Amino acid sequence: MATVTAPLPGIQAHEEKTKLRISDYFKWTVDHKIIGVQYMVTSLFFFIVGGALVMMVRWELLTPTLDLVQNGTQFNQLFTMHGTIMIFLWIIPMFAGFGNYLVPLMLGAKDMAFPWLNAFAFWLIPPAGVLMILGYFAGQAQAGWTSYPPLSTLFSDGDGQTMWAIAIHILGLSSILGGLNFIVTVRNMRPEGMSYFQMPLLIWAILATSIIVVMATPFLAGGLTLLILDRVAGTAFFNPAEGGDVLLWQNVFWFYSHPAVYIMVIPGFGILSEVLSTHSRKSVFGYRAIALSSLVIALVGFTVWAHHMFTSLMPSLRIPFMLTSMIIAVPTGIKIFSWIGTIWGGKIRLTSAMLFALGFLSMFVIGGISGVMLAAVPFDLHVHDTYFVVSHFHFVLYGGSVLAIYAGLYHWYPKITGYMMDERLGKIHFWITYVAFFFTFFPMHLLGMLGMPRRVAVYAPEFQTLNTIVSVSAFVLGISTFIVLFNLVYSLYKKRVAGPNPWRALTLEWATDSPPPAHNFHGDPVFFSNPYGYGTEAAYRYLEEQEKELGPSYPKTMEPSTQAMAHAAPAPAGD
Amino acid sequence: MNLPKSSHNQTQGSAGISLVWVIAGGVIIVVGGFLISLLTPAILPRAGSAQSVLIDNLFQVMLFISGAIFILVEGLLLLSVLRYRARKGDRGDGPPIYGNATLELVWTLIPAIIVAVLSIYSFVVWSQIETRPDNAQEVGVVGQRFAWTFNYEATTDDLPPNVDMSRVPEDIAATLNNGEAISFSYPQLHTWVNQPVTVSMETQDVIHSFWIPGMRMKQDVLSGRVTTMSFTPIESGVFRIVCAELCGGGHGEMAGRVTEDGDLAGAWLIVHASEQEYLEQFYYPELEKILYPPEDPVLLGRQEIQNYPCSGCHTLSDLGWTGTTGPILDGVASRTARLDATGFATMSEYLHDSIRQPGAYLVPGFNNLMLQFNPEPDHANYMPDSDLDAIVAYLLTQTGN
C-alpha cells in the first residue's frame, strides 16, 4: 500500500476530506454523483433478481415437460417478472445512473440542471420496485412484459397485475423527469464555448435517449392508465365485447416500447464511442455521423412500432412499417462502421473495458442482422413470437446494452471510486461472459426457426438438445455475473489508487480528482477542443498540464501498460 | 514526460491496405456468405407449402447478404485487434484521423441499397403469399384456451355418395333440404396436396396466434375480430400447429403433440395425398358420424366430446388426452366427495352444471379457466343439450381412481 500511495499524498489527503460513508448512499441527497451511484447499485440489485428469475426459467426448460414449476401459470409469472425487471429496473435505470454521474462531469458542471428533481426521479424507483415484487404475494402478473389484453385484463384475476401496471407507471414518471433534466442540462450547462459538436458522444447519446423518453413515455402512461381502468374501474377500452379494441393496447404499447428499445441501447452506443476511442488512442471516426445517427435513430424509431404487430396488424399496413424498420438499419450500420474506423489504425489496449466494447461490437452486429430479417414481413410471418425473436432482442439488449454497461463500469469505476478494478478478474469475467452469452442466445435462433414459440413451459421433445445447450450456457452466464459483482466490491478493498485520469482520456470527467470533490472541479475546468483529439501535440500538452495540476495517475494503464500493471497487481493492498 | 512528439507521423497500417488484400477479403466474404446461405434447409423445418418455398428463398438471400456482412464486420474487428494492438512499451497514440467523407458515404449508401433491394423483394413475396385464392377450401378455426378446433361445413353437394337419408336425424335433414350447410368440428385441420386452404379464425377468449411452422405462416387470432390466412400445401404429411401468442398457463400445450404411443394429439395439419383420400379417410367418415349418430348415448358422448376443445386442458386416458391445466377426467364419475361439497343429488346433475357453469363449483384454492358452454345456438361456445346429455353419459362411465 505504502509504495502505491507514496507518490500521491495530495490525492490521499483530498480523499480523506471528501470521503463518503456508506450510509450517505442511502440518504436523500441532491449530489448527482451520489444519485448516479444510487441508480447503479439499485439497478445491479434488480439485475440479480431478474437474473435469478431467468435461471429458474432455464431450469424449467431443461426438459420438455413441467418439472420445476407446478403449472404453466407459475412459469408465465417467472418470465413476466424477468422481462419487466430487466427492462424497467435494470437497463433503463442503469443507463440513467451513468448519465447522472457523467453528464454534469463531462460538461464541467457542478450538478444537473434540477438537482432536487433528479433526486426525486431516483427515489421513485425503489418504491416502484418494491410494489412490483410485492405483487408476487397478491396474485402475480403473468401476462408477459407486453401484457396484451384481454389476457392482462379480463383473464388475470390477481391484484399483482394491477400493481405491475402501477409500478411501471411510477417508473415511467421517473424516466420522464430524468429525461427532462438531461435535456435541460445539456442545453444550458455546457461550459462557455463548448458547441454541441464538441460534446462527448455519450452526451449526444443521452440527449437522443432523453428526447425519446420525453416523447414516448407519456404514451406508455396513457396506455397503462387505460389498462388499470379496465382492470379496476370496469371500463372496456380493450374489451371488444363492449366496444373496445385489443389492438388499441398493442399500438399504444409498442409506440412506447419500440422507442424504448433505443432508450435501452443508445446510451450503450455512447459508452462505446468513449471506450473504443480512449482505449485505442484514436479519435472516433466520423464524429458528426455518430452523433447525428443517434438522433436519426431516435426519430425514425417513432415510425416503426407496428413491426411488432406484423401478425396482428391489418395486412395492408404491414409494408409501410417494413420500410421504416428497414431504413433504421442504415444509421445503425453507420455507427458500426464508424466504430471499426475508430479502432482501425489505433493503438489498441485490450483492457477489460475495451474487451467488453469489442464484445458489444461483435455481438450487436448479429442482433442488427437478425433485426433486418425480422423487418422483412414474409420471414417474420414464420419467426414472429418465436425463440428467433427472443434471440434477436437478447443480442441487442445483452450483447448490446449489458456488455456496454460492463464496458462502462470497467471504464468509469476508477473515476467513481478512485480505485482501479482488478484487470485480471475483469478479463476472466469477459471471456466467460462472452462465450457463455453466445452459446446461450445463438442456438435460440435455430429453435425459433425450427418451430419453438416463445413463452412456453413445455415444448416438443425434439427441441431438448438445443434447449439444454441454451440452459447450461445460461447458468454459466449467470454465474459469470458474480465475477464482476465480486470485482466491484473486492477492488474497493484492494484500494489500487487510480488517480485522476488513468486512461489518459480527454473528456472533462477525467480533469478532476477520482472520486471528484463535492462540487466536481477545483475552479472552472478547461475543456479540450476535441474530446477525441488523440495523437495530436495539443492533446499531449493538455494531458501534461492536467497531470501537473492534479497529480499523476496510477497505474499508468495507458502508458507502458502491461509492465506497470504486472508490478502493481501483487502489491499487498492493505487487506 | 518523455512522450513521442509525433507518433502520428508514422501512419503505419492505416494506408497500408493493398489491392490484393481487398480482393482476398472480398472473395472470403462472398464465399462465406454463400456457404452460410447454403445452410438454410438445415435450419428450417421441411418446406410444406407453396408459400414456404418463397419465404425460404427470401431467407436464403438474406442469409447470404447477412453472412457476408457478418464476416466483413467480424473480420475487420479481428484484423484491427491483431494488427493494431499496442506493443509492449508503446506509449504513443494512433494517428489523428477524424473521418473520411467518401468512406462514410459508401457505408451509408451500400446498406441503404441493400435494404431497399430486400424491401422490394420482401414486398413481392408478401404480395404473393397474401393473395387469397378463389378455389380455396374454407375452414373455420376457433382458438380457445388451450386448444384449437376446426369447423368444416357440408351442403347437400358435399354429402357422401349413397347417403341414406332415412337414417339422418330430422333437424339435420331439414337444414340440408333448405339448402343450408351443416357443420361439424374436429381437433385437426385436414386438407390435401396442392389444395389452397383459407382459414377464418376467431377466438373465444384471449388472443392466440395460429402458426404452422411447416407452412411458414402465422396469423394472430384477435378477440372481437375474424382474421384469415391462406396457404397451399405442396407435400402430404403431418405438420404441427402451434399457438404463438401467450394465452395463459396452458399456452405451451396449445400445440400438436405426439403421445407416448406415437399417436397425434392436439392440433395438427394433416395433408392427404389426394382429394379422394381426404374424402374417404376423413371427410366422409366424420360427416357420417353426424348423419348417422350412434343410438347409444355413451358412444355418442365419446364421439361428441372429441369435437369440443376439452383436450387442451384435461387429461383423459381413454382418449389419450394429456392436458394439465384443468382437473383430470380419469375416474371423474367416482369422485363422490364432490357431491357432498356441492350439494348435488347425483353425479349426472353435478357434471351437467359443471359444464354449463364451470366457475360455480370450484375446488377451494383453484381458479376457473374454463368457459361456459351455452345452450343457446347464437351464443359463443354453443353446446346443444343433446350433446351435453351424451357427454355426461360418457363421462359417467369414467370410474376408478
Tell me what you see in this structure.
The complex is a heterodimer of chains A (575) and B (401). Chain A has 575 residues and is an all-alpha fold. Chain A has helices at 2-5, 9-18, 32-60, 72-106, 115-123, 125-134, 159-188, 201-232, 246-279, 287-300, 318-327, 329-343, 352-375, 377-383, 387-417, 423-450, 464-494, 537-550, 561-568. In chain A, helix 3 (32-60) runs antiparallel to helix 4 (72-106) and helix 12 runs antiparallel to helix 13 (352-375). Chain B is α+β, with helices and mostly antiparallel strands. Chain B folds into 3 domains: 19-80 and 102-130; 137-292, Immunoglobulin-like (Sandwich); 305-395, Cytochrome Bc1 Complex, Chain D, domain 2, CATH 1.10.760. A 5-stranded mixed β-sheet of chain B has the order 3-2-1-5-8. In chain B, helix 2 (50-84) runs antiparallel to helix 3, helix 6 (297-305) packs across helix 9 and helix 8 crosses helix 9. Chain B starts with 18 loop residues before the first helix and ends in a 6-residue tail after the last helix. Chains A and B meet through helix 4, helix 10, helix 11, helix 12 and helix 13 of A and helix 2, helix 3, strand 7, strand 10 and strand 11 of B.
| Strand order in the sheet with the most strands of chain B | 3-2-1-5-8
Low-confidence stretches of chain A: 1-17, 557-575
Q: Which residues of chain B sit in consecutive blocks of at least 5 with pLDDT less than 50? A: 1-15
CATH fold description of the largest domain in chain B: Immunoglobulin-like
* Number of separate strands of chain B: 15
Distance between the termini of chain A: 9 Å
Layout of secondary structure:
The complex is a heterodimer of chains A (575) and B (401).
Chain A: H1 2-5, H2 9-18, H3 32-60, H4 72-106, H5 115-123, H6 125-134, H7 159-188, H8 201-232, H9 246-279, H10 287-300, H11 318-327, H12 329-343, H13 352-375, H14 377-383, H15 387-417, H16 423-450, H17 464-494, H18 537-550, H19 561-568
Helix pairs in contact in A: 3-4, 3-5, 3-17, 4-6, 4-7, 4-9, 4-15, 5-7, 6-7, 7-8, 8-9, 8-10, 9-10, 9-12, 9-13, 9-15, 10-12, 12-13, 13-15, 13-16, 15-16, 16-17
Chain B: H1 19-38, H2 50-84, H3 101-130, E1 137-144, E2 147-154, H4 170-177, E3 182-186, E4 189-192, E5 197-203, E6 208-212, E7 217-221, E8 227-231, E9 237-240, E10 242-243, E11 257-258, E12 264-265, E13 268-272, H5 275-291, H6 297-305, E14 315-316, E15 321-322, H7 337-342, H8 347-356, H9 385-395
Parallel strand pairs in B: 1-5, 4-13
Antiparallel strand pairs in B: 1-2, 2-3, 5-8, 6-7, 6-10, 9-13, 11-12, 14-15
